[in-house]
Design brief:
Length: 375
């Protein structure tokens, strides 16, 4: 099967369902349940332990017999929690919970600990998988490969965008009606979108352009070739999660659906599209008292994390308070990426670190990158 250029997927796209999700419990494709805690920053691991028990019961018992065959209704339960940093010490001491932690991302927020010292707030992702969801490659091998592929970019994201423009390509921040069939060709088989879902997303983005930028929850980035055709694209989605303790909310922004046309590969167009996307988000949310947390779930099989690195992203720390964290979402969702074996994929979690905001996405850099929509 042909290895098409895929750079990032999360797969919540049946008809255009948001990837970042919502607070509370959701059912998702590929036999999954998701829970995003609305309870604010957790200062102990008790609620996480409770959610783990429920997830384990769901995975063990959610089966039906159809025509004599046992069918899994839920084989993966994922929980997202905001926690203060010393909760990782409790997780490390728990034989059950420490093996459930797949990823953790530092947020821009802090909270006072028990001794009143400020502690960083983290977004924790834990999961329970059934035995049927087996890794194609060990997590250690995946981490080793990503570390090898991590490289210092010789070109900044801003310079990459400038280079793409110099080759005659242009950037757009809305989904044009005439582009919907082309976008469907890129997103349909790969991510599971249908044309109505794309139309809905186009309308949502168009309406939001009339709102105050700080209220936006959806963004689009497209690279258009000299003939006017979509060459690469990406979207971002925002979810505000309450922090509690009168701390306001965390603006969590997922960068997703990274895709490029096969006939314009190796021109840096997907990386440029993602850079243009992130610059839009940073520009629009610059009035917030605390910057957003921009993250991505990148398909390991297609080496999508390379695009993340090129746009200034990084893999979060793999050890926090003595707890080892793979930063891999195991067997998370199916992707039509052209690789064998067909089926579920593992995803490397990435985020835009604080230094990227100052070194790569400064106010002047963002202004230069975004400019105005060019078509």
């Amino acid at each position: 099967m042909r290895n098409i250029e895929i750079s990032q997927v999360t797969g919540e796209q049946i008809g255009g369902v948001p990837s970042v999700g919502d607070l509370g419990i959701e059912t998702r494709s590929n036999a999954r349940y998701y829970y995003t805690s609305p309870l604010g920053v957790h200062v102990h691991d008790d609620k996480i332990e409770q959610a783990e028990r429920i997830g384990r019961l769901v995975v063990e018992r959610q089966r039906r017999v159809v025509l004599g065959e046992s069918i899994e209704i839920a084989s993966r339960c994922v929980g997202k929690f905001l926690v203060k940093e010393d909760v990782f010490e409790e997780l490390r001491r728990s034989r059950t919970l420490r093996d459930r932690i797949e990823a953790a991302i530092p947020t821009p927020h802090t909270i006072r600990g028990e001794l009143e010292e400020p502690q960083k707030v983290w977004l924790l992702i834990a999961a329970v998988n059934s035995s049927s969801r087996r890794l194609h490659e060990s997590s250690k091998d995946m981490m080793r490969r990503v570390n090898i592929d991590r490289r210092f970019e010789h070109i900044t994201p801003q310079a990459r965008v400038a280079s793409v423009r110099s080759q005659g390509f242009a950037f757009i921040d809305e989904i044009r009606v005439r582009d919907i069939p082309a976008i469907y060709n890129l997103w349909g088989t790969t991510f599971g979108w249908d044309e109505q879902g794309i139309r809905n997303r186009a309308q949502n983005i168009h309406v939001q352009k009339e709102e105050q930028p700080s209220r936006k929850s959806s963004w689009f980035s497209g690279v258009v070739d000299p003939s006017g055709r979509i060459a690469a694209l990406a979207v971002a989605e925002r979810l505000d999660i309450p922090l509690g303790y009168d701390l306001g909310t965390l603006s969590l922004v997922e960068s997703t659906e990274w895709r490029g046309r096969d006939d314009v590969r190796n021109l840096g167009l997907v990386s440029a599209s993602v850079t243009y996307l992130h610059a839009q988000v940073i520009r629009d949310l610059s009035v917030l008292s605390t910057p957003p947390l921009i993250f991505a779930e990148t398909n390991y099989m297609s080496r999508a994390y390379r695009v993340g690195f090129a746009s200034g992203m990084d893999v979060p720390p793999r050890k926090v308070r003595g707890l080892s964290i793979p930063q891999i979402l195991e067997q998370n969702v199916e992707v039509g990426d052209g690789y064998e074996p067909i089926g579920l994929r593992d995803f490397m979690v990435m985020y835009l670190p604080p230094e990227a905001y100052t070194q790569l996405y400064s106010t002047q850099a963002v202004r230069t990158i975004t400019g105005r929509s060019e078509i």
